[in-house]
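Sequence in, structure out. Go.
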Amino acid sequence: APFLRDIVLNHGTWGVSHTRVPTESRPGHVAIIAGFYEDVSAVTKGWKMNPVEFDSVFNQSRHTWSFGSPDILPMFAKGASDPERVDTFMYGHESENFAEDTWTFNQFAQLFTNSSSDPKLYQQLHDDKIIMFLHLLGLDSNGHAHGPHSKEYLNNIKVVDDGIYETIQLLDKFYGNDKKTAYIFTSDHGMSNRGNHGDGHPDNTRTPIIAWGAGISKPNKENPSGHDEFSMDWQLNSVQRNDILQADIAPLMASLIGINYPVNSVGELPLKYLNNTPLFKAQSIFVNAKEILEQYKVKY
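Output:
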């Protein structure tokens, strides 16, 4: 993935995002976008709609556009405080044929094309506190079908890497390269050599996190640390590795665009990812601590 590798080495902050059992799609996405971990019993319901409504960064945003899988997107649109705040663009279940990523990137590009003849959409795309979520299912599908070391899987990595590059080119052009967009690349879970996931094996609980753009720290090359045997042979030792817990991504996204933390979030704001003033970081982590304390009080 040469484009994402260049981001890690020269433009952003990266690390390993550690998730929890069950390493399934729905619990992983709930942790990323809502900041809390589902009960272990969810391992048997990885793709089913959650019957309990919950808060998320989508719900707190001014507007969210989401693209991708019909198995993931509806659970974040359902129960939103304002149903018109979250737009979903999904392919049909019959189209899950390992080509979903190309469809997702194309539909995302079409949104900006449509804005040229839709003044309301054009204005919405220029508001602050907006989120664009691209759910890329192809790697999971190809990993299950062919294994994570197959040529099909490796080719899909290239599709994702190229698609992200083209997407950023599109956004830079649309927004006049105003440098007001933050990007986060991650995954809901990992995958074993056999093409399975769900349990607590490190291959399933370790996922990538790469962040760059507005409000994100540049690579730390002065005192790079955080490496272990897992990343030692990646030739990334010249930049610091900053590991986080998966639920920490939700408060990171909230902080970057200036929205409330999701109400049930237990994630801790990863300060090493933030490029901001000491005062901003102190105020943010204080509010974060108060919010987590409220979770503890309720559970106690």
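Check: The longest strand covers residues 206-213. The two ends are 45 Å apart (CA to CA).
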